[in-house]
Design brief:
Layout (H helix, E strand, L loop, with lengths): L6 E4 L2 E4 L10 H5 L2 E3 L2 E6 L2 E5 L1 H14 L8 H15 L4 E9 L13 E8 L7 H6 L1 E5 L19 H14 L4 E5 L5 E4 L3 E6 L2 E4 L10 H12 L3 E4 L5 H4 L3 E6 L3 E8 L2 E2 L7 H14 L10 E3 L2 H4 L13
Parallel strand pairs: 8-9, 8-15, 12-13
Antiparallel strand pairs: 1-2, 1-7, 3-6, 4-5, 4-6, 5-17, 6-7, 9-10, 11-12, 11-14, 14-15, 15-16
The structure holds pyridoxal-5'-phosphate.
Length: about 325
């Protein structure tokens, strides 16, 4: 099923896509009072499995806490609802979009009079920046818009409001003929893409900006740090100057949507050899082996969706590398 079909979970009920509507006077429409997640279910060699579902749901509830939302549904129940909704739609693989938002009640800025509603939307979503970008890399523009300053919009919350800034960055990059934007923080340090985190490789060392650089600390970022260290690379999370990018040997984006996508140029300056580099390739390969079930799930990152498939024997984690 594609975007626009299937059933959507809304406050505990499965409804047809066409009927999953909210009132125009809902708080979220006017004031951006929503928090959401983006996760993926992969069709692995052992059956359909969601990647780091529990971690995504934890981040959703963390985002809600930052915005003082009190969801009517528990994290456990909403996690179970994600799996139920995938099964109800008989998806083998899909993108998963749970969202919690201030609904219909009153229309002042004060959101407390509005209910916290929840929904789960699923659709099939292939390579976010295109299959070619996964191989060849993407052309990136440093945005003229910065990420939000500290203590303005909390970047650790995956809030709908943050994506007003992300849209400004994305539209500017698109209008100028680039594939994606990369934002600086308000100090001018490297932050992240409009919807993905950044890694840079130089002299065999892998760098990524820290959580304090106005970014969403992605679960793919966390997975890639773990994968890279297991592959023997040194990974440093540190404040990074913009110009490091232009002299990088390699750079790549990571995120649920982009997975691991090489960056081949920044502001029309080719990076390294101007195509996917060997470090990017090895991390990308290992990432896809894990999410596709071709490598053992040593960290317990996969949640199988269909009980019959979950019974398929999994390669056992080893004591040394289980998380
Ligand atoms: C702004 C932003 N940064 C980073 C990410 C990557 O996070 P994750 O790997 O958890 O999908 C996302 C995607 O959710 C995002 O929207």
């Amino acid at each position: 099923m594609s975007f626009g079909s299937g059933r959507i979970w809304m406050n505990g009920t499965l409804v047809d896509w066409a009927d999953a509507n909210i009132h125009i006077a809902s708080h979220v429409i006017h004031y951006g009072s929503g928090v959401f997640e983006g996760a993926r279910c992969y069709q692995t060699a052992h059956g359909s499995a969601c990647f780091r579902l529990d971690d995504h749901m934890r981040r959703l509830y963390d985002s809600a806490r930052i915005y003082r939302m009190e969801p009517a549904v528990t994290r456990e129940a909403l996690t179970a609802a994600v799996l139920e909704t995938i099964r109800a739609n008989e998806y083998k693989a899909c993108y998963i979009r749970p969202i919690m938002y201030r609904g219909y009640g009153a229309l002042g800025i004060n959101p407390f009079a509005c209910p916290v509603d929840a929904a789960i939307i699923l659709w099939e979503w292939g390579a976010y920046l295109g299959e070619e970008a996964l191989q060849q890399g993407v052309d990136v523009r440093i945005g003229s818009w910065s990420r939000s300053a500290p203590n303005t919009f909390p970047s650790l919350a995956k809030a709908t409001a943050n994506y007003a800034n992300a849209q400004l960055l994305k539209m500017e990059a698109m209008a100028d003929g680039y594939g994606e934007a990369l934002a600086l923080d308000t100090d001018g340090h490297l932050s992240e893409g409009s919807g993905e985190n950044l890694f840079i490789v130089r002299n065999g060392v892998i760098y990524t900006p820290p959580m304090s650089a106005a970014l969403l600390p992605g679960l793919t970022r966390d997975s890639v740090i773990i994968i890279a260290r297991e592959l023997g690379y040194e990974v440093r999370e540190q404040v990074l100057p913009r110009e490091l990018l232009y002299i990088a040997d390699e750079a790549f984006f990571v995120g649920t949507a982009v997975e691991v996508t090489p960056i081949r140029s920044v502001d029309r300056v080719p990076l390294g050899r101007g195509s996917r580099g060997p470090v990017t390739e090895s991390i990308q390969r290992t990432f896809f082996e894990i999410v596709n079930g071709h490598a053992p799930d040593t960290h317990g990152w996969l949640t199988y969706v269909y009980p019959s498939e979950a019974a398929t024997p999994e390669p056992a984690p080893t004591a040394s590398n289980a998380s």
